[in-house]
Amino acid sequence: MRLGLALGYWGRGPDPRHLELAREAERLGYDSVWTAEAWGSDAFTALTWIAAHTSRIKLGTGIAQMAARTPTATAMHALTLDHLSGGRLLLGLGLSGPQVVEGWYGRPFPKSPLTATREYVEVIRQVLCRQGPVEVDGLFHPHPYRGADGTGLGKPLKPITHPLRADLPLLLGAEGPKNIAQTTRIADGWLPLYWSPLRTGVYQASLAKAPDGFLIAPMARAVVCDDVAEGLLPVKAMLGFYIGGMGHAAKNFHADLMARMGFEEEARRVQQLFLEGRKEEAVLAVPDAFADEISLVGPRERIAERLELWRTGPVTDLLVTAPDPRTLRVLAELNA
């Protein structure tokens, strides 16, 4: 199992620790470093900055949102950064949800998410392969565009720039069972939002036909500390926000996932409290057991014991959100 560093997205501004952590992760032998985006900082610019200050570590978008860019624009970002970094990019993509897609990007959330994802990936694959002009007879991402509101003058185009790698790894963030199953067919890897090494059966059917070499790269909060309860608070805050605030009461993929993982009553309670504006109560209502299962928190000995659970499962890459160099170092030593 390889280790990666997940830096996420910025809060109010750039986090001055991110570059230091990325360089320390590279020094410690971490395989990858990942950036993300929500509705603030973007994933590619921050990753390019890190690329310029590192030399070996792989560079992942975890995740870049599909609604933020057309698939050809995403492919342009990917081939550009892959060239500049010497072939280090891992392209992680996600569809996001209706609140973000329609509220932030001002676009309709696709009525058929599976089809929209499949077409998006197909366009990117054609750009990176560069075997001919991009042509997709799609419902959501047709190339060329042939809609009634267009001019009808669109011409199939082949990228001017020759991509460095036709087989640049593409991973998808997927949560629903059908979406995960499709991911095993059209992508090189999967970026789970929550992963519990105690509940791998939740995903067993969806991953049943995953090919050899398929990447499974979940993210997990990691911190070496004496007080487990205190160390879990950031995990619970994240869960409270995602389960309560990253979706509508009637359509919240994150809450649905927590429910499928055995915490349905608790998920609905967290969601209800958050939507009522009782955010602190929502965070406290997140079960410690769930937060603990999906993270690595506590003294070194406790983390060592729990890390073995992750190493014995199907996870190929553990992407840790670690707040300090000490935690990075301890994980590197334990995973050696």
Key attributes of the depicted protein:
LLM class F420-dependent oxidoreductase; oxidoreductase; alpha/beta; F420_OxRdatse_Rv3520c_pred; 336 residues; Luciferase-like_dom; oxidoreductase activity, acting on paired donors, with incorporation or reduction of molecular oxygen; 11 strands; TIM Barrel; 43% helix; globular
Protein architecture, described:
With 336 residues, the chain is an alpha/beta fold. The protein has two domains: 2-221 and 299-334, TIM Barrel; 226-298. Helix content is 43%, strand content 13%. Strands 1, 2, 3, 4, 5, 6, 7, 8, 9, 10 and 11 form an eleven-stranded parallel β-sheet that branches. Helix 1 links the parallel strand 1 and strand 2 (32-35). Helix 7 packs across helix 9. It is globular and about 65 Å long. The model has no long low-confidence stretch (mean pLDDT 94). Keywords: Oxidoreductase. This is LLM class F420-dependent oxidoreductase. InterPro entries: F420-G6PD/mer (IPR050564), F420_OxRdatse_Rv3520c_pred (IPR019951), Luciferase-like_dom (IPR011251), Luciferase-like_sf (IPR036661). Residues 17-313 form the Luciferase-like domain. It comes from Streptomyces inhibens.
